[in-house]
Amino acid sequence: MTARDRQVALDASALTRYDLILTDISMPVMTGLEFLAIYAQQPGVHSPVIILSAEAEINTKGLPSFVVKILAKPFRLHELLALVREYAQPILPKPEV
In a designed cystine with 3, which of 9, 59, 77, 97 is the match (CB 3.0 to 4.6 A)? Predict the structure, then answer.
């Protein structure tokens, strides 16, 4: 699924848990860091997040624990695909009791 901006992504993430979320720091409506702060306040288990960014330095202090990687732009496609394979684990349904 893709979202045209952070608000759409927040609305979607409130309804569905995704295997992995990829986000940029600079986007319309709200920054990636604002998105992460609001997403962290949503109840329940959070999907792992990979930040993609062309910014030279990102302050990692205070990032939520579900941020698993920051990938600098430009990146190589095989790097991104390796991270997707590593972190996008299928979500198994809860066993019935």
Answer: 9
What are the structure tokens assigned to 28, written together? 């319309």
**Averaged confidence pLDDT in the chain:** 83
What pTM value is reported for the model? 0.79
Place of tokens 């309804």: 15
Q: Can you say whether residue 21 is alpha, beta or left, with left for phi > 0 and alpha for psi between -120 and 50 degrees?
A: beta
Average pLDDT over residues 33-62: 85
Q: Are 50 and 68 in contact (CB under 8 A)?
A: yes
Contacts of 9 (CB under 8 A, 6+ apart): 3, 21, 23, 35
- Residue 79 region, left (φ>0) first, then alpha (ψ -120 to 50), else beta? alpha
